[in-house]
Amino acid sequence: MNYILPGPSLLDKLAFIVLASAVLGFGLLTVTRKSAVTALMALIGACCALAGLYATLSAHFLAVLQVLVYAGAIMVLFIFAVMIVNRDDEQPIALRGLFLRAAGVLGAGYFFYRLAWIVVRERRADVLATSITLPIPEYGNVASIGRLLFSDFLFPFEAISLLLLVAVVAGVLVARPPRPTPSGDRERVA
Amino acid sequence: MRITLGLDSTSLSRRYPRLAILATLFMAFGLPLGLYVAALAVFPLNTPERLDAMAEQWLGYDLAGSPYRYIVYTAFLLLVAFIAVNYTAVFGGVSTWVERRVAGRMQSRIGPNRPGAAGFLSWVADAVKMILKEDTIPAEADHLLFRAAPYFSMVGLLLPFVVLPFGEATVVTDMNVGVFYVAAASAFVVVGILVSGWASNSKWALFGGIRGAAQVMSYEIPAGIAMMVPVLMAGTLSMQGIVRAQGGWPWQWFVFQNPAAFVAFFIAVTASLAEGNRTPFDLPEAESELVAGYHAEYSGFRLAIFLMVEWANMWIMAGLAVTLFLGGWQVPGYGAEDYARLLGTGLLPAPGWFGLQLLSMLMFVVKTWALVFVFIWLRWTLPRVRVDQMMSLCWKYLVPGAFLCFVVTLVWQLLVPPAGVAFTGYALTALALFVLAKFAVATRRNISKVAGHRVDLGNW
Known about the structure:
By secondary structure, chain A is mostly helical. In chain A, 68% of the residues lie in helices and 2% in strands. By secondary structure, chain B is mainly alpha-helical.
């Protein structure tokens, strides 16, 4: 196993082009479809294509996590919520009123300006033509990620778990059925 | 109109009884054996380096420097995928026949016994029937998603085959995130169930889809935690690494190596039954409540895909449990050095190596079929649980139980010396054999109590 990856081969470039256009295409479908479920399916496609991009960057663990957590669990929860709520007639917030629309256009314009700037800068650096040296031999595998998580990044890692715990408790609080009132019958929340 | 396949008892096979037996033998043994041999021949070659060496040695062609290297490699990957897809289809088909015969035996009836010897070819007849049927799509359905849904399920079924080890060398690739990958891949089945339920635009299907999503999402958690127990014991997420950390004899299997793993095995099997929508957890397609659940509106080939996924999923469930807990392909008495010695250093290994590989595949296949057999028993013994029972079983018992197993395994790994682990292996194996013997005796006594019961082969 050599630690220096060769420059991108034809297949790598092909994989990048296919996966990147899949991410963009599914992303566009996500924001343009009217039916919420179709949009969510496109988002799942974008997540899977993103996982493919991670895999080509030799971050296999991240790729699997992307599919397991986002395409699997979170998206299924989204679909679940959309199916139960099922309010297709709701107008997106960005399309309400002149001010919000203008803000949306400005925000999107700024975002694309930054993106274009990055692309122009990286084109000058021409990263794709050089070979890539991995920082450590076992870059991206489970053992090295685990070592980093439990040494250098221990505090952020534990802080995130605390944050998730808070979120879980909040979720339980929101979802808990109302307490019975002293008169005996339960308060109903419409 | 009656379609005869030429193997029906009324036509060809009555005139040529041997033809039916030959066709059955071919389908029952020739086809799977051919697939196993093809897998053994193709899967180990499946690295660019080995393909380079073979092209260099035999064809005198410098594949490594050729621009067509990746085309050749991709063609090989397609061949691998072809073998895996065919294997799922054949297993899915054969297991429906086994299931129906076992169900017949358990309910004192005959079961399918017409096409082929012992009715074995009925799965072929079913598949042909399904393919010939019209593919109807409800007018009010979401056409695109309705058509796409079966493929999500299919992808979720096929992806785990990439890392499921059939033998010492017979695995498509040995990822360092293998166990994780299987958990991620099976998530696609849920998407298929949910989308088919929603896109059908039918109450039954929608309820089935929502139930399915809630069930699979919930049971993924105990299954995932229970699957981490062998990962902790082996110290790796790679499937082959986990099998290599176990031994061939039962007391070297992870399930018997520590009491927490013994419990975790049952948690993992229960949770995977629920993830695979098998009875007693077949709520998403409960016939008496939801017609056919999420696939109520499907017909023809799309229905065939759903059914194939459902039955072939048993192979993934059982194969995963065998790999993680029951020693996988390990052959008793043969260690890693035997494989290395027989492999040698040449381009082609010695014939003995192929023999040993086939033996290791046989170990895996026999163990997995045994577990599939148990799944079938469960289906025809237990009644369906209610939705609330399903949820409380998962969240109140399996999730805390799995967490407890996880923690106990951590402590066990730290504190118990190898001698203690070996002793636990013998003790738990003895206990399991004792329980099995008691179970067999009790079953025999129960059967002999039923008046007039006898094995009647007259209708096979």
